[in-house]
Amino acid sequence: QLQLQESGPGLVKPSETLSLTCTVSAGSISTSTYYWGWIRQPPGKGLEWIGSIYYSGSTYYTPSLKSRVTISVDTSKNQFSLKLTSVTAADTAVYYCARHVGAASGRTDCWGQGTLITVSS
Amino acid sequence: DIVMTQSPDSLAVSLGERATINCKSSQSVLYPSNNKNYLAWYQQKPGQPPNLLIYWASTRESGVPDRFSGSGSGTDFTLTISSLQAEDVAVYYCQQHYQTPPTFGQGTKVEIK
What we know:
The complex is a heterodimer. By secondary structure, chain A is an all-beta fold. Chain A has no helices and 11 strands. In chain A, strands 2, 4, 5, 6, 9, 10 and 11 form a 7-stranded mixed sheet that branches. Chain A has a 4-stranded antiparallel sheet with strand order 1-3-8-7, with no helix packed on it. The model of chain A has no long low-confidence stretch (mean pLDDT 97). Helix content of chain B is 0%, strand content 51%. Chain A binds chain B through residues 46-49, 60, 62-63, 96, 98, 100-101, 103-109, 111-114, and chain B through 1, 40, 42, 48-52, 55, 61, 93, 95, 97-107.
């Protein structure tokens, strides 16, 4: 069964860059049917889609974060990554990596367990 | 962006009774070429990631109990739990996957009365 696992530092200082990696196991990231994305959830709040990537490297970002976000893929390692620059306290959230079906904005049929990222000095 | 609005924000239902959650989109999520509504429902239990229940408004994901059903078209949708079980206590989210960025409703918390 496909598994996604986020990794990265849990604490980031304001104005610095948040970096996370998602490792895909029991399945290939280089599959034509799927896109690979990031979704976040501030504590006690709702879900926000950040962006997604196809294994070829094509990327799609939510407009409100586009200037600060980069998503990349490493097919040789079966991983994809998120970088979010110039973070503030408003970026504190649980960050999920996820698989989207059929399109960059497709339904999300598989999620990582999530990792809490706290922005604080 | 398409705005998704759920109602109610929370509801309490007795075990075995029906629970109904509504979701409204700010524009149609019906794709004319295939007549599919790009609307999904997710269940999120505390400390867990969301879990896909329904997509294309009414198609149950594999393994989802048949007490969960989705209906609606265009801009108005409903998730129904026909007979609430204790394990159904969770927050439920609708999501449009019609266009980028995909957007979620604010969530509906379902509790036992």
